[in-house]
Amino acid sequence: MPSQGPDARFVSMAGQGGFVSALRVAVLAAGVAVPARAAAREAAAAPREDSSAAGRDLAFQRPYGAVEFGIGVLALPDAELCGEGGCDQGDVSLEVDAWPLFRASPRFAVGAGLTLALTPTQDVPRGSQAVPREHSRRYFQAEGIGRYYLLHGHAIELWTGLSAGLVVVSDNFRTRGTPEVALIGADSANIATEGLTLGLATGVTFGVSEVLHVGGTLRVASWLLPAGQERISFGEEASLANRVTMLNVSLVVAYHAR
Fold first, then answer.
1. Residue 116 — φ and ψ, nearest 5°?
2. Pick from 219, 242, 87, 214: which is nearest to 141 by CA?
3. CA distance 228 to 193
4. pLDDT at site 128
5. How many domains does the chain have?
6. What does pLDDT average to in each consecutive run of 10 residues of the chain (258 residues)?
């Protein structure tokens, strides 16, 4: 067998080195490709968040309770505020409200609420008085509400609803003591005018966390008060009667106990 010269042995060794290098590259490529394919399979198998209405309905796990707190403005644009000196129209007051709610499903919620307005800006016209008297007025509402959610989810919720309940208009009259007038007994008297309230409401809230939403509400209602105005001994009478339109705009903070 003929012996190989130096050049032949060099070519043989070079061929073997190239084969080894190619083998190493192939093994390295396979090592990179296998984890990449596994990651792709895991990404494909992972559940995707469904932003459709059906997906949001499925995300609603169970009924839960919620509560909303609001602060805003209560207006009575067509109210006839009457006293001994005649009548003025309209009133505006700051108000606070609270609404415990039961979220029965993604689309429906029921609850109740209290609204309190303590700072009316319009007083009734006063006539001449033999005994000076101060007058103040307050508004109170206790209502039930049903809501239908047009949009729902963690990011935004939009709803509309119906409300009904009781409204109380409280007129307080207080005698201002003077050196010429001696007071016997209580120095104040109160007239509470009670009626029904029927209204429509709508609202929108935006999620700032999993359980906390902020937004606003708009309510329009009719107060159905007695036609006759109660009168007390000094001649003062209830300041509101008959049907009164109520408008309420408020900013709300809502907590969802999901």
1. -130, 125
2. 219
3. 10
4. 62
5. 2
6. 50 50 54 53 52 55 93 95 77 97 95 96 71 84 98 94 97 72 68 96 96 97 91 78 96 94
Residues 6+ apart with CB under 8 A from 245: 76, 77, 78, 79, 220, 221, 222, 223
- pLDDT for the residue numbered 37: 60
Q: Is 80:48 a contact under the CB 8 Å cutoff?
A: no
At position 34, the amino acid (one-letter code) is V
Measured CA angle at 179 (ends 175, 182), to 5 deg: 55
Residue type, 55: G
Instruction: Using the structure block, give the residue that is written with the tokens 């990651």.
Output: 39
The whole model's pTM is what? 0.72
- Same-domain status, 202 and 141: yes
User: What is the phi/psi pair of residue 40, to 5°?
Assistant: -65, -40
Where do runs of H (alpha helix) occur along the chain?
6-45, 53-59
Angle at 132 between CA 130 and CA 135, to 5 degrees: 130
Output the pLDDT for position 49: 46
CATH number at residue 186: 2.40.160.20
The answer to whether residues 23 and 67 belong to one domain is no
List, in order, residues 6 or more apart from 125 with CB less than 8 Å away. 81, 82, 83, 84, 85, 86, 87, 88
- How many CB atoms sit inside 10 A of residue 250's CB? 22
Q: Is residue 17 located within the same domain as residue 62?
A: no
